[in-house]
Structures are given as C-alpha cells and as structure tokens.
Design goal:
Helix content: 25-40%
Distance between the termini: 36 Å
Number of helices: 12
Largest sheet: 4 strands, antiparallel
Shape: globular
Structural class: alpha+beta
Radius of gyration: 23 Å
C-alpha cells in the first residue's frame, strides 16, 4: 500500500465513480485538457495526474487543493484550482540571480518527502524528523527549491534560509487566545507552522503563558502555543496534535516542542514525571516512528545495496515510558534509524544499549548514510566483545 493509499484508502470502482474526489479529479482533467498542447492521464498513486505540456511532463498531486477547496466560497475555490493548474501546466520561472529570487523566497516546515522527490532540495534538519525547506512562492505556485536551482545564486544554505525566514517574519503573526490560555496563529497565509522556524518566536511566549512555552504544529496551517504548567492542558495538546496530524494531507508533526535555555526550539521533555510526561513521550515516538516507517517502505521498495533497513519500534520501560528501539543485524549490513535504544545480538540473545552509549564506545561502527532524511546510520562490522563489555546495558525491567 502506497503513502497516498494509506492516507485516503482505496475505494471500489462504484465508490470511486461517485466520490467527491473523482468529481474533483475529472474537473481538473477537463480544465487541463482545454489548454493547448496539453495531455493528461492518471498517475499510479491515488489522486495524482501526469501532465504533459509541449513535451514537458510533470506529476500533480490533487489532495492538497481538494482539501483546501471543500469548504470555501466558489470564487476562492476557482482561484485555488486555477493556481493548481497554472502551477503544473506552465513552466517554472528561472531566477538567474539572488536579487531576482529574493522577493519570492520563503521557508516551510515539514517532514521528509520519503524518496518521492527526485531532486535534492535545499533543506536543513530543524528538530528530529522535521526539516526547514526553502520554497519559491511566486504568484502562480509554491514550489520547493532544488539544490540545482539554488546553485546559481552563489549563496550558502543558511543565507538563503535566512532570507526566507525574514520574508515570513515581516508579515508578523496574528494570534488569538482561547479560554484555556492556548494561543493560535491566525494569519491564513499557508505559513502558520513555519513561524516556529523564526528565531525567538516561541521564546517570546515565556511571559504570556504559565510554565514553559510549548507548541504543536500538526499541519501546515496550524500552530498552537501554550504553557506547560497544567498537565491536563499538555495532554490535550498532545491529543489535538495527533488528531489533526492524522486527518490532514498537509500534516507536519504530531509531537510537542519547547525551547531550551538558549531559546532554540527542541523536543519538549517534561520535567515532572507525571501522566503528561508519559503522554508527551508517546507522541514523539509515534510521530518519529511513522516517519521512519514510511521511509523504510520506500527504501525497501527500490534497488539499493544489500543493507537491511532496520525497523523503528517501540517498547515500554519499567517506569511506563515509551521508548524507541531498533536492532542491528549480526553479520550483515544494517541501515539503522536514530532511536533511544539499540539492540545488539550477543550470542543468541539481544542486549540493549542507549544510543548515547553506543556512540560513546563505538562511534566508528556507525557511518551516516548520505542523502537520507530522517537520518540512518550504516553499520561498519559487528561490535567486538571488548566494545560490548565497555557499554553499559540499558535497564528494561
């Protein structure tokens, strides 16, 4: 089952014929075929079209626009559909210099493309399983910027991302607050979640909330901020993030974030060892597990080396905390996800070690696999008996 199948589910031929998605697909197909020198056919993935304009072929995923047009006024609906069609049927503008592109650069926060994007994109890891992407937002489309396109601008990734952040920062953030003290960003500009990328944005809520500021960004258009003083409110945000993340085709994260002492956005780790702390931890493991599981499906389906693509799994500690773990195969190459615990076979039984302990004793046994996000590490031979003896085992019971 493909990624889009899992999001939307397969339907029978009769259901598909009568479904809102089918009607929407046919509407878009008709509009595209009315354009000169344009042909269109259905893609292999559900809700995708393959469009050929003057010999230039591209793939369009209709899910985002379908979602955006379901409950809007007819004029706005036409505007969104026309933007989709212009974006896929007209050539992408070429920006030959930084001065030309500066005014249309922005940034977006989201997870990985899981191998569906053929070209390398300008991005950097923001927090585990989330990246900051450079995007080009011109009047007809928002497109992710490729490394090839950016190479002609002769600027570093950080400079380009800073320009993109500055554009969003200049628009400000309109916020509202509900009775529980939860703030929401209400700009309605498709960059709500991206404001978490702005330096100091979340830190500025310290004086507005009770406790440490925490944030959730379940979808591209949602950013909620609250304080962590009330454990019930923390649990409620976890549930909100997971619910919205699962329901949206433009999902970002089901986890909770906060700031460290330097104001940098990090995974939220609750100091109090209570039910809220356990719920927060579970949200992180579920979210990261979903990202790694989708990546594993893609990697396992395409030709590659003889590497065993290890699964991202979870277990419960003796304190009731949800922890992530993965196993290193003995005697063969493993591509290992970043997890809390690593299982290594010693004889016939697995021994469990923390990720930090493995990296402390035997960092030379793991090499970062280039070009993968979320990151994986390639194993370089089995751990020696001496290395195993130096590592402190992780207590699971």
């Amino acid at each position: 089952m493909g990624l889009f199948d899992r999001w939307f589910g397969k339907k029978t031929a009769v259901e598909e014929q009568l479904s809102p998605k089918e009607h929407f697909t046919r509407e878009v197909e008709q509009l595209l075929r009315a354009r000169p020198n344009t042909t269109v056919r259905r893609g292999d993935e559900e809700f995708t079209l393959i469009i050929n304009v003057d010999g230039r072929e591209s793939t369009a995923y209709l899910g985002n626009t379908f979602h955006d047009t379901r409950e809007v006024e007819p004029e706005r609906r036409r505007e969104l559909i026309n933007r989709l069609i212009s974006g896929v049927a007209e050539p992408i503008p070429v920006y030959g210099s930084l001065d030309e592109v500066r005014g249309v650069l922005a940034v977006s926060l989201r997870g990985a493309f899981h191998g569906q994007q053929g070209e390398a994109l300008v991005a950097r890891e923001f927090v585990p399983c989330l990246q900051e992407y450079l995007v080009i937002d011109d009047p007809k489309r928002i497109s992710f910027c490729t490394e090839e396109a950016a190479s002609v601008w002769k600027s570093s990734v950080e400079v380009l991302l800073d320009i993109g952040r500055s554009r969003i920062a200049a628009t400000g953030a309109r916020t509202s607050q509900d009775a529980r003290g939860v703030f929401s960003v209400d700009n309605d500009d498709d960059y709500e979640s991206a404001r978490l990328l702005l330096p100091g944005f979340l830190e500025r809520f310290r004086d507005k909330v009770k406790g440490r500021p925490i944030a959730v960004v379940p979808t591209r258009n949602q950013l909620y901020v609250a304080g962590d003083a009330d454990p019930e409110l923390v649990i409620s945000l976890c549930e909100l993030a997971e619910r919205e993340y699962v329901a949206s085709p433009r999902r970002v994260s089901a986890a909770v974030y906060s700031v460290d002492d330097g104001g940098r956005v990090v995974r939220y780790v609750r100091e109090a060892k209570d039910a809220a702390a356990l719920r927060v931890r579970t949200s992180h493991v579920r979210f990261e597990g979903n990202e790694y599981s989708t990546q594993r499906e893609v990697l396992s389906a395409r030709p590659q080396s003889d590497a065993f693509v290890a699964s991202f799994a979870s277990l419960e500690s003796k304190a009731g905390e949800t922890l992530s773990w993965a196993a290193i195969g003995s005697g063969f190459l493993t591509w290992l996800p970043r997890t809390d615990i690593v299982a290594v076979h010693v004889g016939n039984e697995p021994s469990f070690f923390s990720w930090a302990e493995v990296m402390r004793v035997a960092p030379h046994r793991l090499k970062l696999v280039p070009g993968l996000f979320p990151p994986r590490w390639e194993t370089l031979g089995d751990f020696s008996a001496e290395e195993i003896a130096q590592m402190e085992r992780f207590p699971l019971s």
